[in-house]
């Protein structure tokens, strides 16, 4: 759409007086993007730039609202003293988002963002943010604190089992064995000692071409009491020949997808190894 030259000039005049793009677009009934293109090369004084920056920082700002000029929105006119900056850094690096930090300090997200840019406060890497969020998220399991003598024996036995047969470098708990009794005991350990979320349990059957997959699945369903929907596609090793008699029911992996449970189990194994 082509606008008359005087509309563009009026937009420039409004900008020089400290009007935001939103204000100009509404006053002249033009698109904000059009105003942005017209005004991108307009040179502004330091005072006007400061005024526009204050408007941007003020999440409460609306066209025609001049309360922000009178500093009635205290959250957006925070004075960043060394103590306040130290508090900002401490809260942000503890894992809180800018929005959460703003709520703690009683200021806006824009104000936090602006202060971090102005005072060169280093932003967290995305990977670090995800790591913090991961460790701050609720656990998917609930370790039992007070154990009976039998439960303590179960825990000790299964920690030793995992030390011998469990995966140590994975991102989840992974215990594999062909002995149905060991599998029963280990699953009891997960359910009774760590009170895991049943929906996170997974089973993987490892077998050979000579095995009957349907029979194996039926067998391990009965042993584990885990729904068939949580059995993932079996791994069939093609180079094993016929060794069905040596491993009659194949081998099964019991997996639990929570890195923090694996870390806890490994930590308790380490503690146990030093105190035997």
User: What is the overall shape?
Assistant: elongated
Major pleated sheet:
4 strands, mixed
Q: Which strand order does the major sheet show?
A: 1-4-2-3
Element-level helix/strand string:
HHHHHHHHHEHEHEEH
Strand residue content: 5-15%
Structural class: alpha+beta
Which oligomerization state do the chains in this entry correspond to? single chain
| pLDDT averaged residue by residue | 86
Overview of the structural elements:
This protein has twelve helices and four strands. The longest helix is centred in the middle third of the chain and has 17 residues, at 149-165. It has a four-stranded mixed β-sheet. By secondary structure, the protein is an alpha+beta fold. Helix 9 crosses helix 12 (259-274). The chain folds into three domains: 5-76; 82-136; 149-274, no CATH class. The protein has helices spanning 5-16, 21-28, 32-39, 46-57, 82-93, 98-105, 109-118, 126-136, 149-165, 180-192, 213-224, 259-274, and strands at 173-177, 201-207, 235-236, 251-256. Helix 11 (213-224) links the parallel strand 2 and strand 3 (235-236). 50% of the residues lie in helices and 7% in strands. The protein is elongated, with a radius of gyration of 32 Å.
């Amino acid at each position: 759409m082509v606008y008359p030259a005087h509309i563009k000039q009026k937009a420039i005049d409004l900008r020089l007086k400290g009007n935001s793009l939103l204000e100009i677009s509404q006053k002249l009934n033009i698109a904000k993007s059009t105003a942005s293109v017209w005004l991108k090369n307009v040179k502004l004084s330091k005072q006007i730039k400061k005024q526009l920056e204050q408007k941007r920082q003020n999440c409460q700002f609306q066209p025609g609202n001049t309360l922000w000029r009178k500093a009635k929105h205290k959250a957006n006119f925070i004075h960043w003293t060394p103590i306040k900056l130290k508090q900002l850094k401490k809260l942000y690096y503890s894992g809180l988002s800018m929005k959460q930090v703003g709520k703690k300090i009683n200021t806006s997200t824009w104000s936090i963002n602006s202060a971090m840019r102005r005072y060169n406060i280093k932003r967290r890497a995305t990977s670090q943010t995800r790591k913090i969020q991961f460790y701050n998220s609720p656990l998917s399991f609930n370790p039992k604190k007070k154990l009976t003598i039998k439960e303590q024996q179960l825990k000790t036995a299964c920690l030793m089992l995992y030390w011998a047969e469990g995966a140590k470098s994975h991102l989840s708990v992974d215990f594999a064995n062909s002995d149905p009794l060991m599998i029963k005991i280990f699953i009891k350990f997960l359910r009774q000692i760590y009170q895991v979320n049943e929906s996170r349990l997974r089973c993987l059957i490892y077998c050979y071409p000579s095995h009957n997959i349907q029979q194996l699945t039926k067998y391990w369903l009965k042993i584990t009491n885990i729904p068939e929907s949580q059995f993932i596609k079996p791994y069939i090793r093609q180079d094993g020949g016929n060794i069905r008699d040596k491993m009659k029911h194949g081998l099964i992996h019991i997996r639990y997808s929570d890195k923090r449970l694996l870390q806890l189990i490994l930590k308790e194994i380490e503690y146990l190894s030093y105190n035997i």
